[in-house]
Design goal:
Layout lengths: L4 H8 L4 H5 L2 H7 L5 H8 L7 E7 L3 H12 L4 E4 L15 E4 L10 H18 L4 E2 L3 E4 L3 H6 L8 E4 L1 H7 L12 E4 L3 E4 H14 L3 E3 L4 E6 L4 E5 L3 E9 L5 H4 L8 E10 L14 E4 L2 E4 L8 E5 L4 E2 L11 H14 L7 E11 L4 E4 L2 E7 L10 H14 L13
The structure holds flavin-adenine dinucleotide.
């Protein structure tokens, strides 16, 4: 029997009529040739699938990684995202994030950054996408560079550059003080942020995860047997939930109210006189005092420069996303003094959010079915491929062997 759309909706209920009714052919194109059975499941989860082993609330850097690791273990997992997959409205947008190894190697995050980098490489193989560009990370001007330099013995690939070495290797930098030294961490570089989120979700879907974007979580309630999650489109049950809602975490976790400080930051892209001198072959990611930047990527014309500072207080639901003159002035002075050949016209400006808090990764105290990860201030992206694994451990085994104990102190 052929059902028209209204018959179909009467029979199956009104939720997501468009996608449920949308032709499998269109969906096949969108889902890159996944099997018809899987496509139908994605399009129309059987009601039984509204009960999951794990539901992940928020599919940014942390949540998408958790979804992927959970799906790879064969658990029935659902990921819910209020916007699109790989959007620009949270803390992970803006194409790229820096990663580095040397500053962490001797501290509590040493093993974790190694694990994160292994996981990025695995994701690259599985997805066929170039996510981790190991173009190096150059830290200019910090005396601490010498101490970090000793981490050479730990097997990191680093070089120390004196002022002459910096001038010879990176003449793009000008007017550095004659005492400026630099550390070049060859294990560092950049990660493609939105691409990695999309890739984590892509592989998770292939492994049977369900993903629902454009669906906002309105609340959750845990009981003896599981957790109910209410969204803008319905409700679901799971044995465990993982809250990875970044700057919105305090809206879903009352315990975090007053403990997270969300701030508005900006990222700018500028035309350079000679893009080749700023491409990844010739120019690494770098940090100098509170400014930092990225080489020119093949798919966008311009170097990315930003200022790492506390930022202006913000509410994630009412963020001023229009770049203004002040945003630009935060980096123009730096460019005109230290990178004059990249002080060209503005090519793009984007607004992003830091969430400042004590880091937390693991079950909420008193709620063994609910794990939370905080958005990790201004430096969590590089670890997200490992944090997601630890979150999947908590959600599927109740514990993790990964060294994240220092992230469970309040
Ligand atoms: C300007 C800037 C520069 C940075 N630079 C670096 C860097 O160079 N290196 C580095 O390692 N880190 C860096 N960071 C930090 C890093 O980007 C963050 O630690 C990381 O992106 C946080 O990821 P997240 O998953 O917690 O947040 P997000 O990626 O924002 O994800 C949270 C997700 O939850 C969703 N969500 C929220 N509420 C709901 C709801 N109710 N229902 C459904 N979905 C919901 C959101 O839409 C969002 O997609 C930077 C951050 C910023 C802002």
């Amino acid at each position: 029997m052929h059902l028209n759309k209204s018959d179909w909706v009467r029979k199956n209920g009104p939720r997501r009529e468009f996608i449920k009714f949308g032709s499998v052919t269109t969906l096949s194109a969108l889902t890159c040739g996944l099997s018809t059975t899987l496509v139908q499941e994605i399009a129309d989860p059987h009601p039984a699938h509204r009960i999951y082993d794990v539901i992940v609330l928020g599919l940014g850097a942390m949540g998408a990684s958790c979804l992927y690791h959970t799906a790879k273990r064969g658990a029935k997992v659902l990921g819910l995202e209020q916007f699109d997959i790989g959007h620009m409205l949270g803390s992970s947008g803006g194409f790229t994030r820096q990663t580095k190894v040397a500053p962490y190697i001797q501290g509590p995050d040493g093993a974790l950054i190694r694990r994160a980098n292994e996981n990025w490489r695995i994701l690259e193989k599985e997805s066929g996408q170039k996510i981790f560009h190991q173009c190096g990370w150059l830290n200019l001007g910090v005396p601490r560079n010498r101490a970090i330099g000793q981490s050479k013995s730990e097997g990191t690939k680093i070089e120390l550059l004196d002022p002459k070495g910096i001038a010879e290797r990176y003449p793009q930098f000008q007017k550095l003080s004659d005492k400026t030294e630099a550390l070049l961490d060859h294990d560092g570089g950049l990660l493609r942020s939105e691409l990695s989120i999309a890739s984590h979700c892509h592989i998770a879907l292939r492994r049977g995860a369900h993903v629902r974007a454009q669906e906002t979580v309105e609340g959750w309630e845990a009981d003896e047997n599981g957790v109910t999650v209410k969204t803008s489109r319905g409700s679901y049950r799971a044995k465990q939930i993982v809250i990875a809602s970044g700057a919105w975490n305090a809206k879903l976790v009352p315990e975090l109210k007053g403990k997270l400080k969300v701030t508005r930051l900006s990222l700018g892209w500028f035309a350079s006189k000679d893009n080749e001198t700023f491409d990844m072959k010739n120019f690494p990611t770098w940090g100098h005092g509170s400014h930092y930047g990225f080489p020119v990527m093949p798919d966008f014309p311009g170097i990315k420069v930003a200022k790492h500072w506390k930022g202006d207080p913000a509410d994630p639901d009412h963020l001023d996303r229009i770049p203004n003159h002040r945003d630009e002035s935060l980096v123009r002075d730096y460019l005109s003094s230290h990178l004059p050949s990249a002080n060209g016209t503005t090519l793009a400006y984007k607004i992003c959010m830091y969430t400042w808090s004590q880091s937390w990764l693991g079950p909420l105290p008193g709620e063994k079915r609910v794990s939370v990860i905080t958005a990790c201030n201004g430096g969590g992206f590089k670890f997200s491929s490992a944090y997601g694994e630890a979150l999947a451990d908590f959600a599927t085994q109740g514990k993790t062997e990964l060294p994240v104990g220092h992230m469970r102190k309040t």
